[in-house]
Amino acid sequence: MINICSEPLVKATVQTMGKWFLNSGKLEHDQMSLLVEACKLALITRWEGTHHIYFWKYQISEALLSLVVENFRSLSLDCHPSLEEEISVAEKVLNANFLPSLRSYVWDIIGFLAAHCEEDFDSICLGDELRLNFLVTCACLTFSRSVQKGYQICQNDIMSASQSESASRAVLMMIYSPSKYISTRARGTLSFILGEDGEQNLNSLVNFLSYIPSSGGYVLPNVLQTTVCLVGLACYSSITQYAGFVLRNKGFEILLSFCSWYQRNRGNIGESSFAPYPQSTSEKRICCWVCPEDWDNKDAFLLYALLALAELVNHSFSEQNHAQEFSIKRENVKDRLCTTLQEIRDGTYGSGPRWYAAHILSYLRYYGFQDKLGKRLIGAYEDEECSDMRLLFASGNSVSVNKIIVAVRCPTLLPPEEGARSGSMISSEKPQRTVQEIRMSANVDTLALIKLLEFAYSGYVEVESTTLKKLKTLARHCKSNVLLQMLCRRRPKWGSSIPRIDIPLALTPKLIHLSDVILVPKETNMAGFNCRFCSSTSPHAHSHRVILSSGCEYLRALFRSGMQESHLDRLNVPVGWLGLTKLVNWFYCDVLPKPPSGCKWNNMDTEAKLDELEAYIEIYSLTEWWIMEDLQNECAQVILSCLESARELSIKAIELAASFSMWKLVEAAAEHAAPIYHQLRDSGELDELDDELVNLIRTAAVQFSQQGG
């Protein structure tokens, strides 16, 4: 909906939120309901996109202010009020407690808007700037009050709790906003409000957080207080004068201990949010569509702790004396820090914690993310026999690479005629394997280029300080934006997904001419098949030997064997077309596409479900032959999931698995058929099976019955 009608949707939302300028101070019930729904809809600001432009265009700050201040048009905001005057007015406004049930929405909306601003954002006009400043001041005041309450924060008062948490989160997003204007304003306002009480409040936060890992418990003592405490430390640590205080009071070690404690007890910790959205599981869940991951939902406690750690590390490295202190006095902490951060970066945590773990590691000269696809591809980089190109340096040294990987990841390193092409058709003639040599400019630093190539292949690299400057220059020239961001130690943008190695670009029209092998499924004819890249009308998929070899030892050995098959440009794959497309996706993305889920799966007819199931069983069988254990395990999980949701497919699954002699899969399918054994027997479906298979299902049914099924 946002993509289809972004501007009118936002315009209607903002106008609904801002048109209730009241004199009586009361709203009719239906008016309040409409306001609540408009505020809920405005939470689309949590996702980045062009709709943010329209929120500012239609003066969202004015609409939000009308929900905070009764008769806000009578509010006297001079053109240039002092911060002290603004705070005084804001205190009166907050004490009036106008429309308290909407307050948490206001803080969340302005927080998300701040988080997704551009760096050069500036408010549209002076009036809008004044309103935005006042909202920032109100949020900072609410947040500081939450910090001062400490143990008095009551989780049972849902409205007050949600206001405290959402205001805290909003201030956090303002401080970490890409917009220099909003970030500077939020820091300055919060620092002014904290004043002389800042260190006292900060000391309370540090003491409270130190209690959690040292108590020996495995649950949080107070969820809301923990949230406010962690957010408070992240905000305070972004202010120079308080960052030093936190470091001197062992805040760094305490935050690190909390991260380790969280890792050990993650399964016992619930969500952090008290906000009034969403109220039920049905509102959170969309059965057939995967929602974008929200940074502030999954592992939010860990994210807030890492935000604070990142600020402390940045503060330590920004001052020479602090850098020496960090590297010498904290050497015993550094090893634990690296281990903890690497576990988070490479684990199954949310994108936010993983990004910030990688961000902190960049200070320790570890750049990027390590994943299975990267580890596979770096193996190809280190194997000269896989290469088809050699880069020659002025020093006489050289490095072997793969043209397709360089074309995808560092295209500017290739001569124009070797890179992307505008034509979409490729020749059907068999290519001859040769090793092409390209002479690099004398200005290119050998070590820097080698490090760039390591990152291009694996998405991860370790760099010594002596190479950093030259690598930055090279990364900027090659438009390696993720590496450049990490080399420059730029904060991750709120909501960013984990970067992936974009190898699927190798299958796009501009690069498909670099394909050197064609995969042919078992179907020879398929109605409507039309290749975008060549004139062949039979089903096939263009691919690259280096990608296939990196993911399959069998194919790697085959291509090197010197046998007749190793020289052919076509490889027959004993799976159907649907299975082949899923297999290619796994090779290029390290992701096995899942079948439709939820209502889409439920609404598919039995034949369509069987087609999906058959594709995974065929791949499962192929993995036995090609020795691909990880992919086989993934297939098994998908197959069993399909059978769990559609037990009527069990008989067909048993037949297919038996035809491939996959007896473990046969036994698993029989267990899924056990609960409906009598139904299958009475319907005559078992008559089509061999007696051995029927006995297997009967035995599984007996065991199921004996276990109370």
TrEMBL record:
InterPro entries: At1g04390-like, BTB/POZ_dom, SKP1/BTB/POZ_sf
Gene Ontology BP terms: protein ubiquitination
BTB domain span: 515-596
Listed pathway(s): Protein modification; protein ubiquitination
Highest taxon in the source lineage: Eukaryota
Cited CDD domains: BTB_POZ_ZBTB_KLHL-like (cd18186)
UniProt-recorded name of the protein: BTB/POZ domain-containing protein
Taxonomic source organism: Noccaea caerulescens
